[in-house]
Structure formats: structure tokens, C-alpha cells
Specification:
Blueprint: E1 5-9, H1 16-25, E2 29-33, H2 49-53, E3 58-61, H3 72-85, E4 90-96, H4 100-111, E5 116-121, H5 133-139, E6 141-144, H6 156-168, E7 176-179, H7 187-198, E8 203-206, H8 209-218, H9 223-236, H10 247-252, H11 259-268
Helix pairs in contact: 1-6, 3-4, 7-11, 8-9
Bound molecules: NADP nicotinamide-adenine-dinucleotide phosphate (NAP).
NADP nicotinamide-adenine-dinucleotide phosphate (NAP) binds near residues 41, 44 and 62.
């Protein structure tokens, strides 16, 4: 697929930034779009969408904050329709594994008539370094409402590689890649690995969901974000995703990256150091 301008929705995010860097390295024209770009693109304001899609050939779509939130399916329906009207040749949707609402969003994209590729991902490695968990990890103790459930964490680098392949090469049209990393791990095991690699004594503490919600309320986290985190940790992380897939291999012809490689490279940046 020889797209001229590729739109990246959420271009500053964990996956969008990596997709944009790869496309630019290939000499592609890239347009990043989010609330802080010009023109601004805000998922909560559909009137802002048309300007971002104007003159674009293809798009990488990472919805905010999560396809599980009320209104997400409608937003993907409207965006897909607009993309077809604007003549976009291809859409790559980032979806979430084990989320019923994400499956509904995938269905509306498929029904829209747009050419598509879906990347249905498990939890990212980068949640440990580029998301809300980073502050806890820096203090040396991560507290979450998850026990010994195992998750096949996946590298956002692999997701970006798949998105770029789908946006630039033939052969990924109409495909849904369900992607996981190569290992099932508990949060405790993940934190232990980070602790070993950083040489810091890191702890993992599992708490009941209501205690976790109270903790977030006390930290003045907005209510809808508390709802989302509680949903993800209690509903999606209930064991339903305790299996590996070969989605990365299907898309790229190589195995997924291992958590240990991510931990070694990320620890070397110093991002998990105690800031005190
Ligand atoms: N994290 C995971 O483990 C995981 C796993 C599977 C699927 N997913 C899916 O991944 C998607 C998120 O992708 P990501 O992690 O790459 O992104 P991210 O890191 O959460 O993205 C942050 C980006 O989104 C933009 N943004 C925030 N609110 C926005 C809004 N209302 N309208 C437009 N842009 C907005 C921000 O820029 P501005 O501040 O400039 O707006 C920023 O560029 C979600 O749909 C989630 O369901 C995540």
C-alpha cells in the first residue's frame, strides 16, 4: 500500500509515537493528531475529526482512553464512516484482548466498508514504564487489585511493527491479529524482574478492588478513570486472557519480543530509579 499521508490518532502515545517514528524513518508523510496538535483531534468532540482526516490516505487509530468506555463503539462507527467518506484507503485499529466492547468496536469497523487491519492486543510492557504504574514502581512498591492472574504482556514495539506493516504493505487487509508476548506472567513476576534488573528491592502488593478504588479516590483520580482501571483489573484480568497467541508471528514472521529484553533496555534508561 503506497499511502502518501498517514494519520496517527494518538501520535504521542505509547503505540502512536512508535508507529510515527517508524513511518518517518521510511520517508512517509505522517500527520499526528490528538488534543494538543493543530488541527486538534479530540475523541470527545466529533466536530474536530474531519480536519484531521482531510487529505489523508490511511490512518492508525488508537482510541482514548480505552475502547471499553461508554461511547467508544459509536465513536469508532462515526470515525469509520467519515474515513470512508473522505476516501481513506486503509485503517489500522488498535483493539484490546478480552474486552467485549472492543469486539463491538471491531465489528462496526468491519461493517463500515473501510479497508482495515485490527491489532487486538494484550497488556503492553510499556504500562510499567510509560503509564500510571510508573509512580508506584519508582517508590519500590506496585499496588494493584490483581492477584496471581497471568497476563501475556506484549511489547508496544511489536504492535508498532505490525501497524507499520499493515499501513505500508499489501497482505494485511481484512486481517485481525490477536497479539500477545511470548510468556504468561503475573504482575508479581513482572515486578520481580524489574526489581532484579534495577537492583532495587521492589515489592508487589495485591489489594481488593474496593480498597484500590478508595486509594485512587484519595489520590484525587477522576471517577471515570477509577471506573476504567477497576474494570480492566477486575473484569479483563480475570483469567480470560491466560493464553498465548501467535499473532505477532502471523503478522511479522518472527516471534514477539520477550519481557526480559524490554526490562533490560528500559532499566538502562534510569526511568525506574527512585526520584526521592
Ligand atoms: N495499555 C494497554 O496495555 C493496552 C492494551 C490493549 C489495547 N490498548 C488500547 O490502546 C489504546 C491506547 O493506545 P496507547 O496506549 O498507544 O495510547 P496512550 O499512550 O494512552 O495515548 C496517549 C495519547 O492519546 C492522546 N489523547 C488522550 N486523550 C485524547 C482524546 N480525548 N482525544 C484525542 N487524543 C487523546 C494524547 O495526546 P493529547 O494529550 O495531545 O490529546 C496522547 O497522544 C486504547 O484504546 C486502549 O484500549 C491498550
Amino acid at each position: 500500500m503506497s499511502s502518501e499521508t498517514i494519520l496517527i490518532l494518538g501520535g504521542g502515545g505509547k503505540t502512536g509515537r512508535r508507529v510515527a517514528e517508524r513511518l518517518m524513518a521510511k520517508g512517509k508523510q505522517v500527520r499526528l493528531a490528538s488534543r494538543s496538535t493543530t488541527p486538534a483531534f479530540d475523541w470527545t468532540d466529533p466536530s474536530s475529526w474531519a480536519a484531521a482526516l482531510e487529505g489523508v490516505d490511511a490512518a492508525y487509530v488508537s482510541y482514548q482512553p480505552d475502547l471499553a468506555v461508554p461511547g467508544a463503539v459509536d465513536a469508532i462507527r462515526q470515525l469509520s464512516k467519515l474515513a470512508v467518506e473522505k476516501g481513506l484507503k486503509h485503517l489500522v485499529l488498535l483493539s484490546g484482548r478480552g474486552e467485549d466492547e472492543a469486539l463491538a468496536a471491531e465489528d462496526v469497523l468491519k461493517a463500515s466498508g473501510a479497508s482495515y487491519t485490527i491489532i487486538r492486543a494484550s497488556w503492553f510492557f510499556q504500562n510499567f514504564s510509560e503509564s500510571f504504574m510508573i509512580d508506584d514502581i519508582r517508590t519500590g512498591e506496585l499496588v494493584l487489585p490483581v492477584g496471581e492472574v497471568r497476563e501475556p504482556f506484549v511489547d508496544a514495539e511489536d504492535i508498532a511493527d505490525i501497524a507499520v506493516a499493515a499501513l505500508t504493505r499489501l497482505g494485511h487487509v481484512g486481517r485481525t491479529y490477536e497479539v500477545t508476548g511470548p510468556r504468561l506472567m503475573t504482575f508479581r513476576q513482572a515486578i520481580n524482574e524489574i526489581g532484579q534488573q534495577t537492583g532495587r528491592g521492589m515489592r508487589y502488593k495485591a489489594v481488593p478492588a474496593d480498597a484500590y478504588a478508595t486509594m485512587l479516590e484519595e489520590a484525587k483520580v477522576p471517577g471515570d478513570y477509577i471506573w476504567l482501571l477497576t474494570y480492566l483489573f477486575t473484569t479483563v484480568l480475570d483469567g480470560r486472557n491466560e493464553s498465548l497467541t501467535d499473532g505477532v508471528f502471523q503478522a511479522l514472521g518472527r516471534p514477539p519480543r520477550d519481557f526480559s529484553d524490554y526490562v533490560r533496555e528500559t532499566a538502562a534508561t534510569g526511568i525506574w530509579e527512585d526520584l526521592k
